[in-house]
Amino acid sequence: MSPDRYRNRMPAFDLRTVILMSSVMPGLMSLVMFSLSRGFPTNIRGVGHWASGALIVSVSAIMLALRGGIADWLSFLVANVGMILGTGLWLIGSQLFFGRRPSRRFIALLLIVGIIAMSWTTWVQPSAAGRTLWMSLILTLTYGTHCVVMLRLGRGSNTALFVGSMLLVQAAVTAARVVTMFTPSWANAGLFSADLFQKIYLTTSALMSLTVTVGLLFAAMDRLRNQLEQQSFMDPLTGLLNRRAFLSAHQQEREKTMRAGGLLSLMLIDLDHFKHVNDTYGHATGDRILTDFARRVADMLPEHGHFARWGGEEFAVLLPRAQPDEAREQAEIIRRRVERKEDQSLPGYTCSIGVACMAAADATIEQLARDADEALYGAKRGGRNCVRISDHVILL
Fold this sequence. Notes:
EC 2.7.7.65; 5 strands; diguanylate cyclase; 9% strand; alpha+beta; five-stranded mixed β-sheet
């Protein structure tokens, strides 16, 4: 079979069909995002904007694909302005998602420019090249700005980096389309012209709308999963490790220390007369003292230490590879810092600390906690606001 006959049998590359098919999925994904966003915590922001943007981009792409079969004011004005609004909502959603101030005025300005430009180039001075040039300029700005937001603020998230990379590709292709408008052979090409660059532009735009929508959904799900994981290992009041997470940290540190050889030290810290504080000042003040104590102690601990709320007003600190004298000195630093009144809106308070230290092979959490608890009671019997180290220190 000759190459010419083979080419004649190849199916035509229909841009309208590509756009129609690829625009349906973002619309469906937007409905999924709307549904999921209702169950998201209030501190995960921007998902509703992402969903709205995806739906508007999807509907706008469908209107663009139906150009010639629907009214010009829909396919020229509404469709193009809808693309600006949809991509702008994506940008605003990402800024909210990362806790940044949304660029609403910037998007509003682009919408005004888009409405004026599309109206002028459609009815006042009709020009397909003019519409293409203005839309390409505006979309390059929205894609480029959104790309910067995702790549700068989404460090550490593979999903955010993926979305940022897709936006970078689309911004580059859209910017290249601006350049082609100054090339005579390309400037008068229509939306569905058969030239290679127009195929590349429309195909990447169609695929980008789908991949970005999916990527944004995954980013929201990743944030939700991380928050749920953190909540399962964190004390909700103080933000410290809870007992379950602390036990896991102890097991990991014990295994590492047993391989390398060394000691494990455990502090149990109890806030003195805490029941009296609650009875006198109220539980709200008591909670503020707990969070104040957690913040102040966390600032003093070495990076390799583990700090948890053990229960009630009792806290635990695990210090891997710390010698008894080092653990005792660290406990004294904590005690002296706590007895200083730093927040004048809170009543003064003190703490008692019991310290246990032993070789990793013997340092089960049960044995460490037992010895540290005995030392803690010794500190309380000794008048409180003091440090006691266990008599059962097991050295290497």
